[in-house]
Amino acid sequence: MTFIRHAGRRRSSDNKDLTMPIIQGGPGRGRYLVSSGDSARLSGFVAEAERMPDLQLLHTIGPQGAPHTAVYEMPHATAALLSQRFAAGGDMKIEPDQPLSMFGDTPI
Predict the structure, then answer these.
(1) With contact defined as beta carbons under 8 Å apart, do 95 and 69 qualify?
(2) Domain at 26-96: CATH code
(3) The dihedral of CA 39, 61, 72, 86: what is its sign?
(4) Helix/strand/coil percentages in the chain, nearest 5
């Protein structure tokens, strides 16, 4: 995949890269996390996204009726457009969904 580049590096105390990826469009689809500290704002986006045939809601994370994160499958190009839109608004963000790992780079 060629849709991630970084705008500067941030590192944790154990030297792990904490940089938020910048999403770039490209061919194909992927899983993305859409999140907001304002659950009403995220719920509004989820309702809006129901009318977008390219976005497939996989599940939400957080209290029922007040989620903080939604997991979508969507084209990389759509994710790039949403990333630009959210950056302009400042209260929502989108990032690639990545496998969890307990220690190191081995996914769970």
Answers:
(1) no
(2) 3.30.70
(3) positive
(4) 25, 30, 45
Distances in Å between the Cα of 81 and the Cα atoms of 3, 28, 65, 69, 86 are: 12, 14, 27, 18, 9
Q: Are 73 and 56 in contact (CB under 8 A)?
A: yes
Q: How far is CA 101 from CA 33, 73, 90, 105, in A?
A: 17, 21, 29, 6
Domain parsing of the chain, residue ranges: 26-96
Cβ atoms within 10 Å of 62's Cβ, excluding its own: 13
The predicted-structure confidence for 6-37, as pLDDT tens digits, reads as follows: 344 444 454 444 445 557 667 889 999 999 99
Quote the tokens at residue 75.
């084209």
